[in-house]
Design goal:
Length: 292
């Protein structure tokens, strides 16, 4: 039997994760009071049970005592009950934004400040995160991307390294992305903006890509950047980092940065030891500004 304990920060996508597991054939129970967890485990482990895949949602709703949960998990380990812990994480900014959009109150604050509730929740859940088998940071994830990552772990049984990499192109004139871990400036490369027929295009178009990448400097930069990122990623995994945002910027975020970000993405996409996606933050902004 495969038993998965789904936990993590409120607002990080735990309910969505349980729904994904349910769709994948797991028997799911959410928000079970912690004192009932041992009894639940006894029931599903009875001889002849029809359950082969079970997911149990545990969080801080209802002011549950997580000191007791720590003792329960220790007992499971001592008695040979095998389980996995999936921890859903997200940055403070992403969580606050989600609470504002849904107009929900944080379980630990009632109508008070969300940031204080998040801080206290992180403290209470720290031991679960430290013991987690899988940590997925959903700060930059869409639901379909979360589903893809979970299928790798719980359906395809692939080796999972707990790191999700986002390659993000942007324009410096619109500001450096606040969540960027690594920022690379490609404004030193030839600029297609000054070629009249290329100006309306973007780095997703072949003529722009060819113009940028025909420069030996661009090719050398991409090779060196790829080599450095491939060196860094295993070290970030070892450190326990869950989310890595690599930002590549040019002036407007439309030509050079898009081209190089795409090149880096294609150079890394064959490695299945971490999640990978690409975003072009500012690719359409010039057109919108000019259209005003």
């Amino acid at each position: 039997m495969r038993i998965v304990i789904v936990t993590g920060m409120s607002g990080a996508g735990k309910s969505t994760a349980l729904k994904i597991l349910e769709d994948a054939g797991y028997f799911c129970v959410d928000n079970l009071p912690i004192p009932l967890v041992p009894k639940f485990m006894e029931m599903i482990l009875l001889p002849g049970t029809e359950y082969t895949k079970v997911a149990l949602g545990i969080d801080i709703r209802g002011g549950q005592n997580f000191d007791e949960m720590a003792d329960i998990l220790k007992h499971f380990q001592e008695t040979g009950i095998k389980f996995e812990i999936l921890f859903l994480e997200a940055g403070d900014a992403a969580l606050i934004k989600r609470y504002k959009e849904t107009r929900r109150a944080h379980p630990l604050t009632g109508g008070g400040r969300v940031d204080k509730g998040i801080e206290e929740e992180r403290r209470r859940l720290l031991f679960l995160k430290r013991h987690a088998d899988y940590i997925i940071d959903t700060s930059q994830m869409l639901t379909r991307e979360l589903r893809s990552e979970m299928y790798k772990i719980f359906i395809e049984n692939k080796n999972y390294k707990n790191l999700y990499v986002t390659i993000l192109s942007f324009g410096f004139k619109y500001g450096i992305p606040e969540d960027a871990d690594l920022v690379f400036d490609v404004r030193f490369l030839p600029n297609p903006y000054y070629i009249e027929e290329l100006r309306p295009m973007s780095g997703n178009d072949e003529p722009v890509r060819e113009y940028v990448m025909k420069s030996p400097v661009a090719q050398e930069f991409l090779n060196k950047l790829t080599d450095m990122i491939q060196f860094l990623i295993p070290n970030y995994v070892t450190e326990g980092k869950n989310q890595l945002v690599i930002a590549v910027g040019c002036t407007g975020g439309k030509h050079r940065s898009v081209t190089l970000a795409n090149g880096l993405y294609h150079a890394l996409e064959q490695d299945e030891s971490y999640g990978l996606k690409i975003e072009h933050r500012d690719i359409e902004k010039d057109a919108k500004v000019k259209g005003k």
